[in-house]
Amino acid sequence: MTIPQERRGSGQVRRGSVPMDRRNSGAGNLPPTSPEESTPLKPRGKESKFVAKPQDKFSGNEKENVFVQLEVFGDPVPKVEWFKGFKDLSMEGQRFKTWTDGETNTAILGIENLKQEDEGSYKCVLNNGGGEVEHEFNIYVTVEGGMDFRAMLMKRKKPQKKVVVEKYEWIEEPVDRKVKQGACDEVSFTAKLSHKGKKAKWYVRNQECYKGAKYAFVVDDDVFTLIIKNPEVNDAGRYSCVIRECNDLTTRASLEVDSPDPQYGFEKKLDKKKHGKTKRKLKLKCKTDNPDTKVKWYKNGKEIKLSDTKFLIKNEAGEQTLEIKEAELEDSGTYTCKIEEFGKEGESETSCEVVIGEFPHKFTSELKPKECVEDDQVVFSIDCEQEDAEVEWMKDGVPIIPDGKRVQIVKDGKKRKLIINGCKLEDAGNIAVKTNADESSADLGVKYNNGFVKGMREFKQCVEREKIIFNCEVKDPDAPVDFFLNGEPIVPDGEHIEVVNLGNGKHQLIINKAEMGDNGTITAKTPSNRGDEIIESKSQFTVIKGEEPPKMGDVAPVTGVAKKQCNMTIPYKVEGEKQSDLEIFVEKDGKLLKIGKDINLTVHGDRIQLDVINPKREKSGVYKVVMKNAQGQDERDIMVNIMDVPTPPQTVKVTDVFQDNCVVNWSPPRDNGGTEIKKYIVEALDVSAGTGAWTEVAQTPGGNDRAIKVEHLIPNHKYRFRVRAANKIGPSDPAEMGGDDILMRDPWDIPDPCGQPNIDDWGPDFAEMTWKPPESDGGAPITHYVIEVKEKNMNQWVEGKHLSAKEVQEMGGMIKGRQDGLVEGCEYQFRIRAVNKGGPSEPGPPSTPMIAKTRFLPPHLKGDGMYDITLKKGRPIRYDIWFGGEPAPSVEWLREGRTLMSDKDTSIELYSKNAIYTEKNTVLSIPRADRVRDTGLYTIKLTCEAGTFEASGRVNVLDVPTKCRRLVPDEVRAEHIKLSWLPPEDDGGTPITNYLVRYMDIDSGEWVTACTTGGTSAVAKGLKPGHLYQFEVSAINKEGQSEPIFTGDPILAENPYKPPSQPGEPKITDFDNKSVTLRWEKPRDDGGRPITHYVIQKKDKFGGWFDALVTDSTNCEAKIDELEARVPGLSEGKWYQFRVIAVNKAGESDPSPHTKPHLCRHKNLSPSIDKGQASSKKVRVKRTAVWQIKCRGEPPPTFTWTHPHDGEIRNSENFSILHDEYQGGATTTLVIHKSRVSDAGTYILEATNRNGKEKVELDLIVLDNIPECECDMYRSGNKQCSCTHSYTGERRGLSALSALTEDSEAPSEMASLRRDAHSSASLDDAQIPRSRFMRARSEAPKTILRETRGDATTITNIQPASHYAKLDLDAIETGTGPRLRRRGTVTFGSTLPIRSFQTEIVRTFKDDRDYQPDTLKFFKTPSCVWFDTPYRTLSRSSRTRASSRFVRL
């Protein structure tokens, strides 16, 4: 194939031919990539186009490869298609390959093994959605050797004619036309060809145009005209003129037909002005003069979309309506209806001014507060001024949605009601009702009614070591439940005993691995919330003794009999209650025996019965029985001996043979059968008697004998012996002696006489004869035979030839010998003597007389004999043969086994020659040879008493082949048909070189050569889809071409299959943060071809669909009617959708429905709370505090909020908790309504899922408001102040406190301070301001304040009292505390960094957490010292939490 590589100076293009396989070529004009290295094109430019002047001519040599490269542009990347004429090259098999190179933005076409029929016009089509762009080019093929191979096929011995290839081209091509529908009666396209006498066809959009009402054709020699009558819009398209005879020579032109423009106007316009009210409908109407008029509505110049749910736009037979469903104030404005297109000038729009006024609704009564208990009905009622007033009911600012049963909203005239049936705790809150102009609210309170919703079962029991769970449920989810065993509190240890609060009032007592000592009465106690009343639920608990490991008893050795039975019984016991299955295994020789195949196992209450299946001797041995349960195992070895008859003795031989006795010897058997040998039995077979029966002739008294003498045998009879071994089970199979039969006789005698000789063959100097051997050899082997000869007329027998036993032949009980040295013409008789070591036998009877002469002379040919003949049809065939034989043979001619006779086509003649020996001549001649009649194997057959002689020669008459057989279409497709046939029955005598395949389009009636092939199948390509075709095939040999064979009925070119239907909607069955696993159903219809693979496509939230995975055997697994595949390569945190496409040979199916959006995330992820949202908050009293915190986790975690003082928080009038799950986590919201001072402190948020849990602490600071001049502490530092305010920071009374503390250094003031300190045992006795935390901490830890400044160190013990710490001022003043110094401890009224004082505060809380503030600010009152510090992080066990507040020491 050729690619232009450079331009020469003369303007010629350098071309070359290179192989498709890039690895085997070093040519410089290879494409930059191969099909296997194809890379996608990249976006370049805008519209689809080719490089400025792409090459339009390419050439290549036959049987080589050619490449076409075209540089393309387009954004988005265009789709590239290649055609030859109207053939899509992507459907043309493996020789045509297409690919792209993204580096050079090149589209490449490769044709492998170039053929002459590949020559012609091609085109490349680009399409990126903005229209098609084509580039046409030609490929020229140089025929190998410069000669048309089709002419070579038909070559005879005639001289070759010079082949002249004419060039066909368009002299005049049609031009593009553009018309408007109705503006002209017809439009025409004209094309002119360079040659006359050709036929052309016109096509539009690849469909043929036919003569009729729409199209007319005019042909004037070489000019072809297409006339399109009354062109309409649907006649637009690209028209092509194609000359099939000229290798699909094509020219094209486009027709564009514009539709006429209509004119529209308004028949009735909008009102100039219109008024409306809120919540009321408002309609604007106008009418156009044509129902097909398209209009658009505008408000204040902005288009109103059809998707806008506020408006309803209608067009009913030209009546245009715009309806405002529920008018609002902002709907006022100018509304315009415009005709979208083809509007009449000055009448294309109409407008209306719309004014919307609001209708106010007010209440005539107010809501009243309600108090109730659980399950009561509550009704809130209020009256409105108007019956159509719309009201909205809300709870704590959240709209109430009625369900029609428990929560009902009733509209009864002017009265509006909210009915809550079966009140629940979460219903408590502020109930409000609103109209568009009025509002009213009241509080609803709901109380608990605690008790056991579900108590424990009255009796429960379990088996030792098992787990048991006691469940109970109380109505109050916050009420504690305590468990007792026999009246004693149960303390969980986390292992043996667990107490679990499942939430929502559900509690569990779990005893893991129950022990015998756990028996007793289990009691669950909970308060009833009515005073001190306690409610109980009891369960009587019993523990049953659990099972022990099995124990097996002893078993004695077991003895069985083969083929009968072998069983054993094993006693066992298992104490305690059964808790696991009993498993039994049996092993032998380290191999586990199979139950039901090797053994049968039966388990009884206290024993095991084992039966050996089909007991055999080889199954003897040690059987190991293993019995186990969950607690342990036991095993026993059992010796099993299976007895059977012995094996046969190993050897048997006979010695000491005499006339009536002999000695039989044997060796013992290899196996005695598991028990000792009792005796041996000797049996004999009298061969001479011929009865074939074995009889017992001897028996040993014991089993240790190895030989026995057998007596009372018949002399001169032949015997065979065998021996059996017998034990108590029975006798073994016999072991028979080897060798010849035993003849009972003494070992000496002369042989018996031989039989009469029979003369079998003779000649002029020899005679061959056979005779019966002696019946007895006399007890010694025959050493030789003596032939005695007697000539006629002589009375004396003469000893002739001696034949040793090796020289004679034994044939079927007869002895064969030969006597030489006879005289031709003499008559002889013969007799035989046998000789052994005892001497010669008596002579046998003499033979019949014979004469020495030649008996037979086999038939034979003389000269060259028969030979093969190959000749052309019509030439003569002649065989001239001489032959001889004694006696004179007869002659017969045969052809393929049939006798030939003389007739009009064949002549057979016979001649004889007088001589001592027979000499004859036969002549076979055929003047004009015919292939069907005369081809075959010719045989001459000579027959006489001496034998038969045959000789053959093959005659091959050459001719053209016969017809091919059984031409059938194997595969029918839209553009090609695969044919196959059987070769001719006769190839004409010379091999078939190839087959010629032709087809005829029924429409055209012309036969066209499809291809030639050397095999018995071919593919006819280039067919027109939907056309009928007739096919013929001829066989060709060197003699010529056979008659063609035709297909039967015409064949329709169409595909038998289609792409599959769409697969089922994929489901996501598994996922992680990098992949998903999809499962989908197979398509209902595979399109008639097996589905080869599936393409899984994905798209993210902002992109389009693209291939994510092509399935194969490694990533796709069939599961009944569903398929499953894993899609990797996803990015965590992105949203994806997936769909599946099925692919068969016809192509891709429609995509399946896509999945719902999926967030790529972990499937199992422990909770991770967003610490950025989990920050502390500061809120004033009676304000709302809200935490909204996200938490990652899979599955989405559940949340528990814990109050600083009241424990777990649930929905109530003071708190609202909302949970919202999303893919990848969940969001929790805690709303604290009207914050109270008691709500301050550290809240705990705990997130939990199956993969773990996480906690976070959040501080809430509640700032109180202090009324002016109400606190003496702030006003004048009065220690007798009894207000209940807390100090939350700098206030206006702080100056008085500071002044007091600054003056307190005077000695008189210090003395007063000491007296006050002595007189007050604790701060609880003094009536001074208290902190907001009123719960006492009796076990609060100590705090040590250690201050170092220079060489002065002050250590102050601070004992916590209630919620604050008390400082012993006497210890500071007098230094009576351990190593305390008064000097330099605190400078009151000042604020300094801790690091400047080197002061360290260490708080030993219960969770061992430390707290160190940045600064300390000290103040002093007559009874205590205060310090102020910004709290940053506080321990959960300390109930004294504040930020920037005073804390009293």
Explain this structure to me?
By secondary structure, the chain is mainly β. The chain is flat, with a radius of gyration of 60 Å.
Distance between the termini: 101 Å
Number of helices: 7
Identify low-pLDDT runs: 1-29, 146-163, 1286-1449
Share of β-strand residues: over 45%
How confident is the prediction overall: mean pLDDT?
80
Main pleated sheet: 6 strands, antiparallel
- What's the total number of strands? 114
Radius of gyration (Å): 60 Å
Shape: flat
Helix-strand makeup class: mainly beta
Chain-wise SSE layout:
Blueprint lengths: L43 E7 L6 E5 L4 E9 L4 E6 L2 E2 L7 E6 L4 E6 L8 E8 L4 E11 L6 H5 L16 E3 L4 E4 L5 E8 L7 E4 L2 E2 L6 E6 L2 E7 L7 E7 L5 E10 L7 E3 L4 E5 L4 E7 L6 E5 L2 E2 L7 E6 L2 E6 L8 E7 L9 E9 L12 E4 L4 E6 L8 E4 L2 E2 L7 E6 L2 E6 L8 E6 L4 E9 L4 E3 L4 E5 L4 E7 L7 E4 L2 E2 L7 E7 L2 E6 L8 E8 L6 E11 L6 E2 L5 E4 L5 E7 L9 E6 L2 E2 L6 E5 L3 E6 L8 E9 L2 E12 L8 E4 L6 E5 L10 E10 L7 E6 L7 E4 L7 E10 L7 E2 L5 E2 L14 E5 L3 E6 L10 E10 L6 E7 L4 E3 L2 E7 L6 E10 L2 E2 L9 E2 L5 E6 L6 E4 L4 E10 L3 E6 L2 E2 L7 E7 L5 E8 L4 H4 L1 E9 ...
Parallel strand pairs: 2-9, 11-18, 20-27, 28-35, 37-44, 46-53, 72-79, 99-106
Antiparallel strand pairs: 1-3, 3-7, 4-5, 4-8, 6-7, 8-9, 10-12, 12-16, 13-14, 13-17, 15-16, 17-18, 19-21, 21-25, 22-23, 22-26, 24-25, 26-27, 29-33, 30-31, 30-34, 32-33, 34-35, 36-38, 38-42, 39-40, 39-43, 41-42, 43-44, 45-47, 47-51, 48-49, 48-52, 50-51, 52-53, 54-55, 55-58, 56-57, 56-59, 59-60, ...
